[in-house]
Amino acid sequence: MSLELDPAEEVAYRLALAREHLDRARKRFSVEDWAGVVEAAQLAAENAAKAVIAHFHVPSWSHDPSGELEELVAQLPPAAVDAALELAAIARALAPEHGLATYGKPQERLTPAQLYSREKASEALRMAEAALRAAEHVLRELEYEL
User: Fold this and answer.
1) Is residue 62 part of a domain?
2) Which residues contact 47 (CB under 8 A, 6 or more apart)?
3) 117 φ, ψ to 5°?
């Protein structure tokens, strides 16, 4: 019995996670749950990046996979490089939101709901949508049928 991971299965799993989190972000936006939007958007971008990483190896448990993705750029087809770098930049920008959207700023006694506005949530949602598009582009260049 082999314990090796099938990269295609891990890619599909991570892409499904990214899509689910993006769907949650959109739903939360519709009910004006700004902290919830940012939380789900961060997870969407994180898993979009991890979907690309999964083509090469099992992604780490980090909420910021940007460095991991950047290390793989040289192995990508040239047509996928710009999208991968965009994806890494988005994952890096949203990574700090994981803790903030979950715990707020305890030292300042600010809850997640106190930290986020419609504008911040809208920007996080836009970034998550761009992250998913970038991941899908990279994966198509790697010959995945999406």
Assistant:
1) yes
2) 14, 15, 17, 18, 21
3) -115, 170
Q: Give the residue numbers spanning the domain of 54.
A: 7-141
List, as one string, the DSSP characters of the chain: ------HHHHHHHHHHHHHHHHHHHHHHHHTT-HHHHHHHHHHHHHHHHHHHHTTTS---S-S--HHHHHHHGGGS-HHHHHHHHHHHHHHHHHTTHHHHHHH-BGGGTB-HHHH--HHHHHHHHHHHHHHHHHHHHHHHHTT---
For residue 119, the domain's CATH number is 1.20.120.330
Average pLDDT over every residue of 116-138: 98
For residue 119, is it within any domain?
A: yes
Please state the rounded mean pLDDT for residues 70-99: 98
Q: What is the predicted pLDDT for the residue at 63?
A: 95
